[in-house]
């Protein structure tokens, strides 16, 4: 049984992809545009957004910095004034590998501001309109892109992992609160995807996907009506298994696997 209403036809649907200048967000926006959706793209990089619009006629760019509460509220008002959104996908993110013996507080807080506070800014700005749309008979969908790095603590994930754990918990709570009121909620937990963010990694990334492959997996998840999407499963299934291991086994296994 699907936890969300499946989305099988994107023709003429209105979608807002936040964090669409590069990587997964841009690939999702491209895939939805190809399928006939009316796509609005947002990110800090206005030039990249306008480049997207030039390549995808009919799409709209609304630049914003998700860490700026007023800018998010203004952007949401602009987007919602044009049309109620069938899907809002929060894909903005900041990532830099970090370990506790090389802690950078400014970077830690930057991760929190973009990945967590930014998500809260977006949620607060869009949920009231989504609830109103649900009362009018629509089934709006809110999707948060987290990461398998949020499932359990991992080496070099001191800054990033806790923010993604927060998004997973946030999505679970939003689902419990909003789904009974007609708003669909999902969370996306990718493994390694070849993006400008993961280019920061100096280690081998197993089962590395392209952004287009990640976008395809997300569209398949929305089509199936699942709550959580995690991919590629040949990699993420092992991390899901690690989530249930006792700490004694988990810590020993991670040290053995990573050498860290």
Secondary-structure blueprint:
Blueprint: E1 14-18, H1 23-34, E2 38-42, H2 46-55, E3 60-61, H3 69-82, E4 87-90, H4 105-135, E5 141-145, H5 160-178, E6 184-190, H6 211-224, E7 228-231, H7 233-242, H8 247-258
Parallel strand pairs: 1-2, 1-4, 2-3, 4-5, 5-6, 6-7
Q: How would you portray this structure in words?
A:
- This protein is of the alpha/beta class.
- Helices cover 47% and strands 12% of the residues.
- It has helices at residues 23-34, 46-55, 69-82, 105-135, 160-178, 211-224, 233-242, 247-258, and strands at residues 14-18, 38-42, 60-61, 87-90, 141-145, 184-190, 228-231.
- A 7-stranded parallel β-sheet has the order 3-2-1-4-5-6-7, with helices on both faces.
- The protein is globular.
- The chain starts with 13 loop residues before the first strand and ends with a helix.
For this entry, give a set of tags:
single chain, 260 residues, alpha/beta, 7-stranded parallel beta sheet, 7 strands, 12% strand
H/E series: EHEHEHEHEHEHEHH
Per DSSP, the total helix count is 8
Low-confidence stretches: none
What structural class do you assign from the helix and strand content? alpha/beta
Helix content: 40-55%
DSSP E strands, number:
7
The description of the largest β-sheet is:
7 strands, parallel
Sheet with most strands: strand arrangement = 3-2-1-4-5-6-7
Relative strand content: 5-15%
**Radius of gyration using CA atoms only:** 18 Å
User: Mean of the pLDDT scores?
Assistant: 93
Global geometry = globular
Ends distance: 41 Å
């Amino acid at each position: 049984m699907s936890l969300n209403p499946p989305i099988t036809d994107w023709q003429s649907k209105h979608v807002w992809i936040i964090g669409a200048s590069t990587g997964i967000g841009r690939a999702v926006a491209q895939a939805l545009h190809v399928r006939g959706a009316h796509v609005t793209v947002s990110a800090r990089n206005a030039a990249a957004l306008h480049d997207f619009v030039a390549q995808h006629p009919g799409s709209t760019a609304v630049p914003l910095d998700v860490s700026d509460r007023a800018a998010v509220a203004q952007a949401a008002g602009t987007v919602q004034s044009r049309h109620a959104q069938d899907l809002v996908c929060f894909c903005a993110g900041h990532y830099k590998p970090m370990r506790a013996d090389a802690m950078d507080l400014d970077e830690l807080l930057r991760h929190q501001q973009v990945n967590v506070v930014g998500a809260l800014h977006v949620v607060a700005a869009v949920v009231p309109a989504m609830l109103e749309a649900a009362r009018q008979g629509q089934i709006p969908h809110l999707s948060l892109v987290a990461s398998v790095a949020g499932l359990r603590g991992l080496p070099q994930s001191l800054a990033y992992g806790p923010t993604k754990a927060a998004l997973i918990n946030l999505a679970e709570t939003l689902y419990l609160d909003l789904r009974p009121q007609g708003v669909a909620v999902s969370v996306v937990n990718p493994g390694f995807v070849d993006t400008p963010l993961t280019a920061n990694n100096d280690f081998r990334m197993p089962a590395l996907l392209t952004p287009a492959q990640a976008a395809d997996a997300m569209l398949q998840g929305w089509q199936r009506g699942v709550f959580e999407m995690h991919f590629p499963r040949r990699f993420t299934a092992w991390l899901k298994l690690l989530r249930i291991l006792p700490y004694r086994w988990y810590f020993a296994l991670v040290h053995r696997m990573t050498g860290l």
